Amino acid sequence: MKCYxxxxxxxxxxxxxxxxxxxxxxxxxxxxxxxxxxxxxRMLNYLSDQIAFKVGVPPMGPRFPPRPKPAQISGVxxxxxxxxxxxxGTINTGVIGSVDQTISALIQLGEPSLAEAIKTLTEAVVGxxxxxxxxxxxxxxxxxxxxxxxxxxxxxxxxxxxxxxxxRAAQITALANDITDVCQKWWPVFAAAFQMVxx
Length: 199
Ligand SMILES: [Zn+2]
Prior knowledge:
2 domains, mainly alpha, two-stranded antiparallel sheet
């Protein structure tokens, strides 16, 4: 069955009319539905405030909580890395975007622990209060470069380059006391991907 909106194969049936949609059209469809729902939630919150105001009592009872913002930083959409605009500051978001894509690639390659290492370290670095912007940018660049190496086949990995970069990264993060635990846990996972193949 084809998608109602485009030539791709359908994966979902939506509305009571059972309209077939493909994955990307379905994703767009649900986004629109969520936006509509959010509008209703805001209106209900407003109405209950309005009632409380009219009755002259403070607003009470359950309200719809604000919805979490989608992980989209400065126009770059992130599927894996969870960081907010408020902590990103002047960090190069293009580089974070490509680190994020590499994480997706590693998951597809069946390297979940490497993907997790990169995700966790990136989030820790971006959120650290002990690192300055330059250090963060350098670390994200290193994470990106090493992640790309990790996503290439074992025989083709530039182990020495990766190790040198990882050493440098570990030196910088050693200055950040607020992320020591994360670094002690995840840098070794990362480094293990670049064990020299003994011939
Ligand atoms: Zn479609």
